[in-house]
Amino acid sequence: MVTITVEGTHRLTQQAERGALALDVAIHGTDRDDVVRRHAEIHNELAAIARERRESGAIVVFEVGSPWAWTDSPSAGPDQRGAPIHHLTSTITLTFTNLEALTADVSAFATRADVGVQQVRWELSDESREGLLDAARVLAVQDAVRRASSYAAAIRPGVHAQPELRVVVERQVHGGGPGIPMFARADAAGVAGFTTPEIEVEAAIVATFEL
Asked: Which residues are 164's β-sheet partners?
């Protein structure tokens, strides 16, 4: 009996269905109370916009990060310190399913001096990702069968013996589980008319056959 161990892989792609937009609020100044006040105003404004987007159905979820505050004293010369500078930052992330609304919001927020716009993180829905991965797994097994059959023909030329599948083990891809990370990125600045990227899912298996 001959044992044949091969790897089967397959990749499938699908256009992204969601775009996660992270907005940063970062306020700095020498007057701590003014920094806190200005940060609260902008942070609350963005949170209200996020709630409006969810109520309208443009987004499926939003996350409001906890504010982070710190103070430093820049150097004003040898052995001298300037006035303390107070910093207060936070991030609000909106996950859009309405990609036209996403485009409009990115363009609008990118023009504001008081809001930082991170790169858009593109995603599939959980259902689409799992369905695509299941389909890739089936095709990865078929790829392994094809490879094993090629080896069998080389080992026993002229004999049409079909190797029997005994063991299948799913291989981790890029150390992050059975699928590659589900995201791609697009620049947040100057995004008018940006295109929605495709998300790639890969399945990989190691299969053992007997001949």
From this structure: 210
Separation CA 132–CA 14 (nearest Å): 8
Report the distance separating Cα 173 and Cα 117, nearest Å.
Answer: 31
Nearest by Cα to 179 from 121, 133, 128: 133
Token pair for 154: 């080389």
Secondary structure letter of residue 193 according to DSSP: T
Q: How many CA atoms lie within 13 A of 13 on its CB side?
A: 9
Question: Which helix (H) or strand (E) segment is 42 a member of?
Answer: helix 32-56
pLDDT digits (tens, 9 = 90+) for 129-155: 899 999 999 999 999 999 999 999 998
What six digits make up the tokens of 50? Answer: 């996020």
Cα–Cα distance for residue pair 135/58, rounded to 1 Å: 29
Q: Tell me the pLDDT band of 1, cut-offs 50, 70 and 90.
A: confident
Distances (CA, A) of 33 to 2, 30, 36, 37: 77, 9, 5, 6
Residues 6+ apart with CB under 8 A from 40: none
